[in-house]
Write a structure and sequence with these properties.
Largest sheet: 8 strands, mixed
Distance between the termini: 24 Å
Strand content: 25-35%
Radius of gyration: 19 Å
C-alpha cells in the first residue's frame, strides 16, 4: 500500500521556523519530522510514499535528492586534476518516493485529488499529515479498515481542544458527524493516520476543497467513515511549544513514536 503525506501547507502557527522551510522539514533530533513519520510507516512495511508538496517544496526535493550521499562516508579526490568520488558506506532506506507539486495555495482535498494519477486504483492508500507523530499501530489500523469494508478510516484521538470534534456511534465505531470545538469539549478528534479507498477522491471537487470539511462530512453521512481509536501517544507540531515538547522527548531517548532501531 502507498502512503500519501500532506506536506504543502504554510505552517503559519510555527512561523519562527516555517518561514525558512516547510513545516514538515522542521527537525526533531536533527532530522525532519517528515522523516520520522516515514520511518514509522516503514517499520510496518510501508515503503512507497507520495509527498504532496506546496510551500518551499524545493527543500523536500533537495533533502531526498541528497539523502544517499548525506548518509554515506565519502572520499572526494581532487588530485591529478580529477574530481573523483568514492562511497565507502552505502546504507539507505528501502523507500520509493514521489514528491509531487500540488500547488502553493491548494487545500488538503485538492492536494489529494492532484496525486490521483500516482495512486494504485486497485487498493486502498494510507494518508496522514506531515506535522504529527504517534505510536498508533498502523498494521492494526490497516487490518481494521479491511475488516469493516467501508471507504474510509481515520484515527481518532483525544488531544486538547484546538480542533473540530467527532461524533461517533460507540457500538459500531462509525463516525456520524463533525462539528466545531467548544470549550467544554472532551470528545475525540481527527488524528490523521487514515486509510482510504481510491473512490474517496470522487468526494473531492477540486483545489479549493478542504478534505476535513465536505468530503469527510459526506462520507460520514453516507455511512462510509469509520474511526480507529488510539488512546496512546499522539502529538501534532502546530506551535513552537509543540516542537519543544517533541524535541525534549527525542533528547530523552524515550520518544514514544520511535519504533525503529538506529
Amino acid at each position: 500500500m502507498q502512503v500519501v503525506i500532506l506536506a504543502g501547507g504554510f505552517g503559519t502557527r510555527i512561523s519562527e521556523e516555517s518561514y525558512l522551510k516547510p513545516k514538515p522539514m522542521i527537525e526533531i533530533g536533527g532530522m525532519p519530522i517528515l522523516w520520522h513519520i516515514m520511518k514509522n510507516y516503514s517499520e510496518h512495511g510501508f515503503n512507497e510514499f507520495i509527498i504532496c508538496c506546496g510551500y518551499r517544496q524545493q527543500y523536500i526535493k533537495d533533502f531526498f535528492n541528497d539523502y544517499f550521499i548525506h548518509h554515506s562516508d565519502v572520499t572526494f579526490d581532487f588530485t591529478n586534476s580529477t574530481n573523483r568520488m568514492k562511497v565507502h558506506k552505502t546504507y539507505t532506506e528501502q523507500w520509493k518516493i514521489t514528491v509531487a507539486d500540488t500547488g502553493l495555495h491548494t487545500m488538503t482535498g485538492g492536494r489529494i485529488k492532484r496525486i490521483k494519477k500516482y495512486l494504485n486504483p486497485n487498493e486502498p492508500f494510507l494518508l496522514t499529515y506531515g506535522d504529527g507523530v504517534s505510536n498508533v499501530d498502523i498494521s492494526e489500523l490497516v487490518k481494521f479498515h479491511k475488516e469493516h469494508g467501508k471507504l474510509a478510516t481515520l484515527t481518532v484521538v483525544n488531544a486538547g481542544q484546538r480542533f473540530g470534534v467527532i461524533k461517533m456511534n460507540k457500538d459500531s465505531q462509525r463516525i456520524t458527524s463533525f462539528r466545531e470545538k467548544r470549550d467544554s469539549d472532551g470528545n475525540p478528534i481527527n488524528g490523521g493516520f487514515m486509510v482510504l479507498d481510491p473512490k474517496v477522491i470522487d468526494y473531492i471537487e477540486g483545489d479549493g476543497t478542504v478534505f476535513e470539511k465536505t468530503p469527510l462530512e459526506q462520507l460520514a453521512k453516507d455511512g462510509e467513515l469509520m474511526g480507529f481509536h488510539h488512546d496512546d501517544f499522539w502529538q501534532c507540531m502546530d506551535t513552537k511549544k509543540d516542537w519543544e515538547t517533541l524535541e525534549k522527548l527525542w533528547e530523552s531517548g524515550e520518544a514514544p513514536w520511535k519504533n525503529w532501531e538506529d
